[in-house]
Amino acid sequence: MRGDARVIELLNGYLQIELCGYKQYLVAAAAAENWGYDRLRDRQREYVKEEMEHAGRILHRILYLEGTPVPSDAGEIVVASSIEDPLRRDEALVRRAIVHLRGAIDHCTEQGDAGTRELLEEMLVDEEHHLDWLEIQLRLVASLGLDGYLQEQMHG
Q1: Under a CB-based contact definition with an 8 Å cutoff, are residues 93 and 20 in contact?
Q2: pLDDT tens for each residue of 112-135
Q3: CA angle 77, 80, 86 (to 5 degrees)
Q4: Is 5-152 in CATH node 1.10.287.3510?
């Protein structure tokens, strides 16, 4: 099925965000493990799996629409010196994903591409849940202090 060129472009844009997220969360999970923060490591690993699942579904949709996947990303990976840094970077990336998805969903609606719209709506819900979790973590850091927050993250 030949898809709209802009829909394919938007799918590739989201694919790049997902692949950046995959790498970012993978590094954050490894750092959390290295520092002994098991709960945070486990949550980041869940997000690594989710990003790969999303990327796979997006790749399949691009191919279904007879497009060419562009599985590269422009995101730089930074190894954090503290736990708060990756939480803030993750929050920025998820906010970017949400903005991108909302625009892509609007375009799919205009083009009458219900299949892609529904796929992206599912992913938008996942991103919104992820943003909620990140906002909670950052509020906990603010209210408990970094030391109190980290103590809570030590054992799963």
Answers
A1: yes
A2: 999 999 999 999 999 999 999 999
A3: 75
A4: no
